[in-house]
Specification:
By secondary structure, the protein is an all-alpha fold. The chain has eleven helices and three strands; from the N terminus they run ααααβββααααααα. The chain has a three-stranded antiparallel β-sheet, with no helix packed on it. Strand 2 and strand 3 form a beta hairpin. The longest helix is centred in the first third of the chain and has 20 residues, at 9-28.
Length: 269
Amino acid sequence: MGRFPAKIDYENIRNARISENQARLASLGLQKTISELRSLTTPVKSPKRKYVKADCSSAPLRRSNRLKQVNPSSPDGLIPVRRPLRLPSDLSTKSPNGEEKEKRPANAPYVDVSLCYSPEVSSERRCRSKGRGSVYDPVFGICCHFCRQKKLCGEEDCKRCNDLDVDQPCLGKTDCSVCHSTNGVLCRACLKVRYGEEMEEVRENKQWKCPHCIEEEGTRPYWICNSSLCLKKRKMMPTGIAIFRARELGYDSVAHLMMDELQRRAEKV
């Protein structure tokens, strides 16, 4: 116990075969050739370069003009504060005379024309898409609450989008008579598809209210804003393009479909 057994026959045969093969290679002169080939194929290692860390303690630190608050193009060298072109320079609600400024509707926001330039767009190009408009304008365009497209409207007689008159309201965007906020700004296409209303009826109705104000008043149960932003705030999944499903089921718009679904869920609970 504890001792290794003696070599068996197959190990002796193996060692004898190895010795025979080595002798045969030596007689043919192949042993040297193999060693030479190995020396040729082994890569030559290049000496490692020593890393010398540069001493930057004496050199002055470099800073960009942005960090230095320096603008080479401006005469005083200071970077001007960027502000939206729609915001006036004075954000106070009172005029210099102490009078309250008139609150502008959401479909006619303030634009400081002296700070911007918008090229004139032909009425034919602007009215190619009457639903949402076909010309994007970051200055004079008004953002729809649902599709969030900042375009000039496609209404032919709109003075704001056609003549770029900032004092005129946009005829292709709605304005809530209660909140006058961006929540009530909807383009013609979203108004029709998502809420089943026509732009002409909304213009004639001076007491038109957005879905947010209707929900706050409680006059129309389960009538909510179905935009992706508002649905995510409610922790609900956005509907996506649901107008085809709504029309197949016989509903006028996506809002009518959601109102019926919410009502059925409430009845089950």
